[in-house]
Amino acid sequence: MARLDIVLLVLDTQRADRLSCYGYPADISPSLDALAARATLFTRAFSAAQWTMPSHASLFTGLSPHDHGLVQSRGVLPERLPTLAERLAAGGYATAAFCNNPLVGVVNNGLRRGFQSFLNYAGLLTSRPSQAGPRRGLISRYRQFFKRSLAALLGRIQDSFARSDALLALSFTPLMVPLWQTALSFKGNTARSLTDAARLLVERRELAPDQPAFVFINLMGTHAPYHPRPEHLARFGPHVQRDPAARRYLRRFNTDIYGWLAPLAAPLGPDDKATLDGVYNAEVAGQDEQVGHFLERLRAAGRLERTLLIVCADHGDHLGEKQLVGHSFGAYNEVARVPLIVYHPAGDLPSGAVREAPVSLRRVFHTILDAAGLASAEERRLSLAATGDPDGGVVLVEARPPSNVVDLVRRYHPELLRRYGYDQPCQALISGDEKLIRFGDRHRALYNHRRDLEEHTDLYAILPERADLLEETLDAVVRRREQPALAPERPPADDPLLRRRLRDLGYLE
User: Fold this and answer.
1) What's the pLDDT score for residue 206?
2) Residue from 312, 343, 340, 305 nearest 201 by CA
3) Which of 31, 84, 266, 490 is 20 to 30 Å from 372 at the Cα level?
């Protein structure tokens, strides 16, 4: 039997709770909903990290961030760790990437290793497949040499901006923001990248006869800045089209890149919150429409039934919840809980199934190798298609904030970082129905994950024994031997509103 093609579609910054198949009340994602009805949907999937680089490194290695080590923008994935693309290429797969995120496709961090073709749709010099066929002649060779040399130079420049604190701060100045949002094509080109990926999978011009393909696609449609198409905004944020104040706020938000990174000094007002929700939802709907065109192209050509398709997000995004915007800090569900939909035509993951046990996104690595017939016995055990729960219902999230972002925020609002320990490495442990979050030595929180998905009620003060047990488990999972330097204070538990929420959750009579 011919081996399946494999498509890993990462919807960058896509929240699980903003898809209809995950319970969002509006009809916001019909294409993904239809796919989920024919696939296995994981209701409690968690990213390994809260931002792009460490999350993708976990997807590509199957390791947690503390094991693969790519946790900062200056980092590089160790050569000793074989990537998913390297493993598949060695196993006979054609490996191709269609990437709209410059942190994956432009910065020299090792995430491109193993891809025989890696096309960027963001950055100073985008790349795309040539439709003209091979070029010959001295002039054509000179042009290709010049383009490769220019690409190498621009790649070094862009890489420097990602790694240098001074250049990063410069890129956030008012004069620079319009440049890199437009000239750098920050969000790439969703439609073109999906069209190019579908062409490879359907036409197979670059593949050997009967050669299977591994295709990685990263889409940035739901990432800030928000510029949704008018027809989607009319459905999900009509007030933005009507209200000049909402449009002014959106313009400020789209150009205030520092505001995407820093904790909020005060809760977001209801009008501004509604604006962010509306434009984000409109972007979700627009991206879902494009994904639908891609899926239909595969289906019409008969390729979908010969493709293992995994749809997930590398992380979510805060839209004002917990006084946070973006995904620099914390491991709350807005950033840690992600969609995970696996369409497996061979039946290893059944059609229409719903899995409610907590799972880590790092297991996508093992699932793909298992489907390709390239997994070791231990890797097969960790496949999402395996029976049982190899993680024992325990999932780890490591939300180490980017150090250059911490330095930038500390320069202007150090008190916001100290208050909640946002300048500390953050870890979250999901065990059964509960989730413990700790911010270094400064702050702890405990939530009932099944009954309180939005994490309104902190149970840390109410269930101290359970919190301590989960913290011991967390220490064991990350192999930490040292004890916290300071014991975190437990907040008071006599708040009437808190007691009412506890009764709603079933902890009090």
Assistant:
1) 85
2) 305
3) 31
